[in-house]
Amino acid sequence: MNYPVWEPFIANSLLIAIIAVVHVFVSHFAIGGGLYLILAETWARAKNDLKHLEYVKKLSRFFVLLTVVFGAVTGVGIWVTIGLIHPTGTKWLINNFVWGWATEWVFFLIEIAAALMYYYGWQRLKPKVHLAIGWIYFIAAWLSLFIINGIVAFMLTPGQWLASGSFWDGFFNPTFWPSLFFRTFICLTLAGLYAGLVVAKEKDINLKKRIMRRNGLFAVVGLLFTIPSGWWYYKAIPAALTGAILPGSIPATAMEIMIITAVILLILTILSFLIFPRHSGYVSASILLLFALVSMGGFEWMRESLRKPFIITDFLYSNHITTAEAANLPADNPLPIAFNSDNRGHDLYLYTCRSCHTIDCYNGLAPSIAGLDAEYLSELMPRLQYFRVAMPPFPGNKPDGIVLAKFILEQAGPDPLEKNKNLPETEKGQIVFNRRCGFCHTMNGHSRPLAESFTDMDSEEASDIIMMIGDLTDQMPPWSGSETELLTLSDYLAGGWQK
Question: CB under 8 Å to 400, separation ≥6 — which residues?
């Protein structure tokens, strides 16, 4: 990677997530809202319902301000952020889909122009022309989704592209169609919810009830259709990826958040928009949008976590090295880094860790490694790919691992066992287990459980096993801890974890 590295004030992945989820939440409304406006205007003109038409005008003003201004700014924000944080990944996406991006930008320009013409054309254009402009907007917006969906889905499921390198194999990848349908129905849901926010303070109660129920119907239909399309999408993801959805795992937690908040959203939308529409106001409409935002955030979080440790599944790791480059590891020579902060350990941390981790904030390293010795941590470096939480291989050589280990340990702070000497033995054992074994094992969980292996062993026998781990397999480093740690861990493995 011949790029400088940016170190923002928060975790890289968290910064991208915040900007991206907010942008997606608005951009999906930009598509569904376009269709909503056309259908609402068509109905109002057919019925000669001037009050309803006035509401549609008001909604179009809100729509243009939110989607054209805020949506465009956050869209640019995504490009700036990913270009600074993941320049290698951004380069690969541009190189492989340059004509796709170019086409999407054309549709985006049409979308912006049509949105402005639609808003300013209420009094200037004939109804048929005005509606035609609305249809042009919606089609251009949906085609933008069509193209971006192909590229985003490619990052999770590149499919045959891995072998062919073909634009079309990458674009029409295994999750392209289910993802497109799923996102389209999300667009419809958000259109109804956002429209409910605009009509919330309507003083004409009969008009409010009529429009609110139509908004609710729009949102509920969209939500109900996300169920089969979401299942289709899930089944299209390779089992090798969905296998990471284990109880307590990040993908499982993200999926639970998505499903639970979507169910609550469905129930509240029916109650608020369909059953008690006259009582719906800004507060209830805002709560519904908040649940929708959390649910969409859960979906995007799950999709991103399934892809880890890759930027492009099975091709480009999150630490900017390709799988082809990783096949030639470990390196004999020191890792070449194009930037220099006069601290080799810091540079290695920025290059190999910072795209996913901070020291002591989001996804922090300190809680897991504080109290380890540099020898053990450096021995873990070439074994990162064996961890139970998927990680890319370390691209440096052994001296790089030692330098990085020392730097991280300097930042991690004191040993928690030294700070809390009066902790119960079980809690001490848990701390030692987490930092010595927990990277790869659980005691009785889904990932390489150790409970059965240590059944009926006493502490001394467990201690003998611990001392031999470096000889059992190359995937585990030799024991290098203190005598106190050894006794604490052996007691824990021999049954202390159950107390």
Answer: 331, 334, 335, 348, 381, 394
Task: Name residue 316's beta-bridge partners.
Answer: 312, 322
206-241: pLDDT as tens digits: 999 999 999 999 999 999 999 999 999 999 999 999
Per-residue pLDDT at 4:
67
State the CB neighbour count (10 A cutoff) for residue 313. 23
Distances (CA, A) of 277 to 32, 220, 274, 343: 21, 14, 6, 62
CA distance 197 to 186: 17
C-alpha dist (Å) from residue 107 to 82, 133, 137:
22, 14, 9
CB 154 within 8 A of CB 170: yes
Q: Which amino acid is at 219?
A: A
Q: Is the pLDDT reported for residue 265 higher than 90? A: yes
Residue 110 pLDDT grade (very low, low, confident, very high; cuts 50, 70, 90): very high
Integer Cα distance of 296 and 467 in angstroms: 47
pTM of the model: 0.91
331, pLDDT greater than 80 = no
Q: Is residue 391 part of a domain?
A: yes
**Are 369 and 309 members of one domain?**
no
Does 355 lie in the same domain as 220?
no
Instruction: Choose the final residue of a domain: 413, 444, 463.
Output: 413
Provide the domain limits for residue 387: 320-413
Handedness of CA 66, 70, 76, 80 (dihedral sign): negative
Report the b/e string of 55-90 with b at 16+ CB within 10 A.
bbeebbeebbeebbeebbebbebbeebbebbbbbbb
